[in-house]
Amino acid sequence: MEQLRTRAGQGSLVPAERRRTARHLLLDGFGLVAQERLAESRVVVVGAGGLGSPVLQYLAAAGVGTLGIIDDDVVEASNLQRQVLHSVADVGRAKTESAADALRGLAPGVEVIAHPERLTRDNAAAILGGYHLVVDGSDTFETRYAVSDAAASLGLPVVWGTVLGWDGQVSVFWSAAPDGRAITYPDVYGPQPSEGDSCSTVGVLSPACGVVGSTMAVEAVKVLTGTGDPALGRLLVYDARTSAWDTVELAPVPSGPAALAAAPLTVADPTASDGPVTAAEPPASAEPGVLLLDVGLRPGAVPGAVFVRLEDLAAGNLPPELLDHPVDGPVVVVCERGLRSRGAEQLLRADGWRDVTSHAMLG
């Protein structure tokens, strides 16, 4: 991370900040030099919501010198279940304004820059260009791809995270990363799809936002300070149902729907000492006796699969192919990232199908 260390600088800390961050100064492998890098760092957070709240709080508390906040929304009562940076008194206020006040109360020395606007492809480069690192906690594909493209053109690292329902993901994307880890968001997830589910349609477990957002803050601190091993080239996958984390080794996604369907899911086995193992490939077409269901965002992406919307499964609107399939017959459910297929597996099991497995098409 030498490039980022140089950009961040190594200014001196005043005595009050040394006292405030004393636990960092005592931390093995961190210390004064890393803390000085944080103090000179400029970080912009996209979204002051469920993920942005813990990210902003922890980065301000950790001693990041300048924090930018990009959000064009206002605080609503339904936000308060998970967006813990805001309070009841903030309902109706701009999220950037509410967040800035909360951060200044937490860390008076932090410089907070509010960007009360929606980040788009037209303004992304101009806004992000003033920072050392981007933390993307946005909840639309349009914003994620705009962030990724602008950051890649500027050579900025992006700490990215998402949470939906019980599931979360975190990774670090950086077009200028060393050691063959220069992977960006579109490299992994492919071309920009149409918008899918959101917390407002399928819900979200509020503490899961804290877990994922705090992990994003950890990754940001590691990148900024050159400490630890950031999640470059790795996708951290969180399941709040079991409190388990899995690691997926990342590589640029193959092109074409057939390649997507056949791409293996590579998972780091925590019990193995010789690196990652490769999970079974999701089938590209249905085998005899197997019903292949596609609950992804793009109909027709998997040859031979029966496409069905996850929302229809949840509502009990089942396709005739499924209704005609024996309850003890094998059913394989696939989607792009494995989140929707996992939810579909749970729904089908609850409806009585006994042999259901789910897969992600991207690895």
Give the helix/strand layout:
Layout: H1 2-8, H2 15-20, H3 22-25, H4 31-39, E1 42-46, H5 52-62, E2 66-70, H6 95-106, E3 111-115, H7 124-128, E4 133-136, H8 141-154, E5 158-164, E6 167-173, H9 185-189, H10 199-202, H11 206-225, E7 234-239, E8 244-249, H12 257-262, E9 266-267, E10 277-278, E11 291-294, E12 306-307, H13 310-315, H14 320-323, E13 331-335, H15 339-350, E14 356-360
Parallel strand pairs: 1-2, 1-4, 2-3, 4-5, 11-12, 11-13, 13-14
Antiparallel strand pairs: 5-6, 6-7, 7-8, 9-10
Helix pairs in contact: 5-6, 5-11
Number of strands: 14
Low-confidence stretches: 5-10, 253-285
Roughly how many Å is the radius of gyration? 22 Å
- Mean pLDDT across all amino acids: 83
Major sheet description: 8 strands, mixed
CATH superfamily of the largest domain: NAD(P)-binding Rossmann-like Domain
Please tell me the total number of domains.
Answer: 2
- The largest sheet has its strands arranged as 3-2-1-4-5-6-7-8
The number of helical elements comes to 15
Provide tags for this entry:
single chain; 363 residues; alpha/beta; Oxidized Rhodanese, domain 1; 2 domains; eight-stranded mixed β-sheet; four-stranded parallel β-sheet
